[in-house]
Amino acid sequence: MEWANRRGDLPPDVSGANPASIAKEISRAATDGYDLVVIDTAPHADHAALQAARAADLVVIPCRPSTFDIAAISATLDLCKLANKQAVVVLNAAPIRSRVIAEAEEAITEKGGKLCPVIMRQRVAFQHCMIDGRTASEFEPNSAAAREVVRLLAALQSSKQAHKAAGKSNVSQKVA
Ligand SMILES: Nc1ncnc2c1ncn2[C@@H]1O[C@H](COP(=O)(O)OP(=O)(O)OP(=O)(O)O)[C@@H](O)[C@H]1O
Ligand SMILES: [Mg+2]
């Protein structure tokens, strides 16, 4: 919400939602013509997160390549199983070149996590653009950060499509 406040009237539309009413909010968004809804949750694998997962087509789990972040994804992966939803783990703020990436990928795979092929790197553009609520592409079009976001979105869209093609879900995706 802080990010949305900083953006003022610029898109995307952002609204707060009670966890219990997320499913209703998504169907209302679909009726209103939205085709993508992102649900941003607090970093806890709690009942609110379970309700969000149940309402989603695809659960995206951002994870820094650090021991504590990796340890924390187990609970989130369990929650996705409980909700019977496909999850994809996105490595975020990864160094450009370091063996911690391969180590993190191995640890995540061992836990049963499916990795997104796009890795988000630690980039100052992501920090700078947040100051006035901009996106990386608004802050610096064609930057490595902006291009990474485009590739991430494409990868997540194809994960979602693959999931739908497998007939595991027919709920429309929500992003907020
Ligand atoms: N890939 C990255 N490179 C550089 N900085 C990053 C990157 N990803 C996130 N950050 C920075 O880390 C900070 C926290 O980011 P963000 O708000 O997305 O995290 P969060 O885990 O969702 O936090 P919260 O739990 O408060 O919602 C921000 O200042 C953001 O700019
Ligand atoms: Mg957050």
Written account of the structure:
There is one protein chain. By secondary structure, this protein is mostly helical. The chain has a single domain, classed as P-loop containing nucleotide triphosphate hydrolases (Rossmann fold, 3-Layer(aba) Sandwich). The protein is built from eight helices and two strands; from the N terminus they run H-H-H-E-H-E-H-H-H-H. The chain has a two-stranded parallel ribbon with strand order 1-2. Helix 3 (47-55) packs across helix 4. The longest helix has 22 residues, at 144-165. The relative contact order is 0.16. The model is unreliable at 169-176 (pLDDT under 50).
Question: What string, H for helix and E for strand, traces the elements in order?
Answer: HHHEHEHHHH
CATH class: Alpha Beta
Number of helices: 8
Structural class: mainly alpha
Put the structure in a nutshell:
The chain has helices spanning 2-7, 22-31, 47-55, 67-83, 99-110, 124-131, 136-139, 144-165, and strands at residues 58-63, 86-91. It is mainly α.
Feature tags:
176 residues; mainly alpha; Rossmann fold; 8 helices; disordered C terminus; binds adenosine-5'-triphosphate; binds magnesium ion
Topology overview:
Blueprint: H1 2-7, H2 22-31, H3 47-55, E1 58-63, H4 67-83, E2 86-91, H5 99-110, H6 124-131, H7 136-139, H8 144-165
Parallel strand pairs: 1-2
Helix pairs in contact: 3-4
Bound molecules: adenosine-5'-triphosphate and magnesium ion.
